[in-house]
Amino acid sequence: CFYQPMPLKASLEIEYQVLDGAGLDIDFHLASPEGRTLVFEQRKSDGVHTVETEVGDYMFCFDNTFSTISEKVIFFELILDNMGEQEEEQEDWKKYITGTDMLDMKLEDILESINSIKSRLSKSGHIQTLLRAFEARDRNIQESNFDRVNFWSMVNLVVMVVVSAIQVYMLKSLFEDKRKSRT
């Protein structure tokens, strides 16, 4: 289980994905600071959940007790929005600027475009992180399939060699002279 402290009226988004392990499934549980269950999913390979928060520690757990034999590798990401810090940072620059309304307007336009670029870069980073997680899961599946194909190819090769040896022996036995010759 993991705990994330959150302020009032923020946004908590949890995204998870099982990258490796038998069945590629896991149980997920998200609980509010009061202990109320917000999300409970059983045997899912991935999920995305967004919650408007209250003040307190949110608990989210990944449970693999149903699978006692296999381990799981999980990728998860927390996206925290509206944490209250940005508003203070955005207002800090205004106390250093004195001048005309035209200057204030241009600075606000610049600030708006910078924030737009920042949010787009953040989304790009988020998408790249997700693509890396998908690539890791696909690579694990591919390596597992490769090992399985190699194993069964070796089994098939051994069976073919044994069958060919038996056929040669049987063919030789057909041409042996089993009669006793008197000389």
UniProtKB/TrEMBL annotation:
This is Transmembrane emp24 domain-containing protein-like protein. PANTHER family: TRANSMEMBRANE EMP24 DOMAIN-CONTAINING PROTEIN. It comes from the Eukaryota. It comes from Equus caballus (Horse). SMART domains: EMP24_GP25L. It holds the Pfam family EMP24_GP25L. The chain crosses the membrane at residues 151-171. It is found in: Endoplasmic reticulum membrane; Endoplasmic reticulum-Golgi intermediate compartment membrane; Golgi apparatus, cis-Golgi network membrane; Membrane.
